[in-house]
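for ur thesis appendix - Multiple sugar transport system permease protein. copy paste whatever u need, i formatted it the way the template wanted (i think)
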Amino acid sequence: MSVQTTEYVASEIRSPASFVASRVFIYGALVFWAFICLFPIYWTITTSFKTAVDVTQGHLIPFVDFQPDWKGWRSLGLSPDSIFQTSTVREEFLKRFMNSVITSVGASSLAIIIGSLAAYGLTRYRYHFAWFKNEDISFFFLSQLILPPVVLALPFLVLYREVGLLDTRVGLILLYTLMVLPIVIWIMRDQFNSIPVELEEAALVDGLSIWGAFFRIVMPIALPGMVAAFILAMVLCWNEYFFAALLTSTDAKTIPVMVASQTGSQGINWWSMAALATAAIAPLAVIGIALERYLIMGMTAGAVK
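the 3d part is after this line
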């Protein structure tokens, strides 16, 4: 037996062990990263069922370290023994919750409509404004995310005061649309780039107009990307705090502002804050699980030509 054959046989003998070791390392790293990502959610949910003593002592495991209590949910009027009773805190929570739903869904929908049309134009037509071309325009949209929110705080505050949009849902919807529009354009641009132009050309030959080809051919194919962009935009709008705290006072306050206000004379009410945060996380978790298939398809669009 030659030396090369001996080395090949030895490598074949060692390969199963190295394969198992690599798999153990990969899955171990994934489990560790999943733990890091999911532990804050676990801590938030369990803290909503803790008392003050359990929070300060750092108890983590329900029924082992501490006995779950509805104190956090009772403070919001959402516990089983208070859900059917009159509660001003619950009414306040439901109002802030509806504000978050209306502003997030409204801004995300508006951003999807405008962003899809802008992205389609950037992928199907050539523009030339001075030295700006399609790639420069796309980068210009994305570069708007570089600006820190505090730079825009005073201009928007003065503008909204002059036009009467302070403490209104419409004001937040318009601002959130501007905030998420660059991300929507960038996602939809990649989505439309992955769709062959020949499909639209064939539709035009068959007698469809440009708008007909867009709505009947392109949009059904691009639907997963639109869903992914909508979910991402909604998450960003739902979690936005800075402008919601700056531009609202009573009528248009959202859930993040209410969560941050859970302080009392003795400090932060962690159980109430955790219950509020859990209630705020739940809708996004349900939407993400229900639309997971579209989310994955949309985020991976354009990765393979």
